[in-house]
Amino acid sequence: MMRVRLEWYDAAGIALAAAFAAWTVTSAVVREGSPWPQLALLAAAVAAYVVGRIQGGRRPVFVPAAVVVSILVGTVASGPAALSGGPLAPPLGYANANGALYTLGVASACTVAILANKEPVRLGTGVLAMVFVGLAISTWSKTAAILAVGVLAVGVAARRLGRWVVVIAPLMVLATFAVTVVLGLNHGSLPSLFEELSARRTALWRDAMEIIADEPVFGAGPGMFAETSPTALADADARWAHSAYLQAGAETGVIGAMLLGLLLLWVFGALFRSRQDMRLVVIGTAAVTAFAVHATIDYVAHFPAVVIVAALLAGLTSSRKPLPAEGGTRQPT
Prior knowledge:
68% helix
């Protein structure tokens, strides 16, 4: 039997999640909209993180192995359409979300390779990591392809990298967010360097910032971006702001966006405090960073499968050694 001590840092994370949930409900009450989809996604993410955290102190290989198998089964079950590269391709019905899921698959396969005791398993999961990179490239999502290759590179070099990676990671997310803000503010007058960016996407970023400027405290209400954004109202396929943080700000105000950002920062802090094998911490950081960066410029965070897998990996790689019950022996992390 093991008992797990709730440390002050864990309590801070619980408080942040509760505050974000409470503020989402408050925004819905003061404005309008339904908080339930956001609350359900938050609950799923928290539950997945806890499961990963617990398994990380017991049998850590189970979580990434289950993720690898689940993604492969989902892809194979989707048939040839999964490799079509179409914008609405399965298994998730959105190519960029598929790419985000495959990127997390790369991290999961690398994690299994590190945890495996047998050389054939390590070699096999190494091959699977490269297969996931190929799948990410097949979605034709440039962001997913770059991130998947980056995660694989980190996995290969994990032994040589240290805890400093966790310090740099949030700065990368912040830099990406800053770029979205600049591009959104300059929508319609972008230099040729950014011509490949969807004009609709930068228009959505601009709309989100305008909503935040108009409703800085409570936002337009949970789920109300699609009912408030001029771009979304003119295009039924543009329901999301293509940025989790700008959407949070538009729907729940500056406070909601800040709470979401603090939750992400808390996850990076948990990774920094992790007592797991440093190689796992490095790969977990790469996975969380890839997800967070992708969520900054696309609406991949609205897909439960992507969020749950990211939370599982974050929990697994940030786990700390549980305390043994009295008379027991300490279990390895």
